[in-house]
Design a protein that fits this description.
single chain; about 170 residues; alpha+beta; 2 domains; 8-stranded antiparallel barrel; 3 helices
């Protein structure tokens, strides 16, 4: 970035030291140069794909994540889930650590006071179901076909998967 600022400074200084030119042409050239430097500074870094890890019972115990919730199972018939969504927050495991995401109270509701959108410092979690009544999968759980989409701070998709959203107590 320092090199870009130096280039901008050189361009502006050289414009002042050169022979007088057509002021409109010079103004257009200056504006083009400044726009180029600003665009280079505002370019987002490349998106980094995520690989959510399975949240284990040990993670739930360690972090006291008990209660009514919805989970996302990325594989049919699997018991390994990668998102745990509750009324106030959702949890995602990345690189061995549990990350906290705040519920977006303006997002569409899911069962048990959970939400379809959760916001964190670096990512946004969108959890969607097919709607309807769902299918009972246990005494206190209901399953829906669903999709998990995780976006980075620049709104780029860094993970998406179809799977099962299971809600229960």
């Amino acid at each position: 970035m320092t090199g870009r600022l130096a280039l901008l400074a050189w361009l502006l200084l050289s414009a002042g030291c050169s022979k007088p030119a057509d002021s409109k042409a010079q103004a257009a050239a200056d504006a083009r140069d400044i726009a180029w430097v600003e665009a280079a500074q505002n370019t987002a870094p490349p998106a980094t794909p995520l690989t959510p890890e399975a949240i284990t019972f040990a993670d739930i115990e360690r972090n006291k994540l008990f209660g009514a919730s919805c989970i996302f199972l990325p594989e049919a018939g699997s018991k390994r889930f990668v998102v745990l969504a509750m009324a106030e927050a959702a949890y995602l495991k990345l690189d061995g650590d549990i990350h906290l995401y705040a519920a977006d109270s303006g997002s569409p509701p899911l069962p048990f006071d959970t939400r379809s959108r959760y916001v964190g410092r670096d990512h946004v979690i969108d959890l969607q179901t097919s709607g309807g009544q769902g299918r009972a999968s246990g005494e206190e759980t209901v399953d829906w076909p669903g999709r998990l989409t995780i976006r980075d701070a620049h709104e780029r998709v860094v993970f998406t998967a179809a799977g099962t959203v299971q809600c229960g107590v």
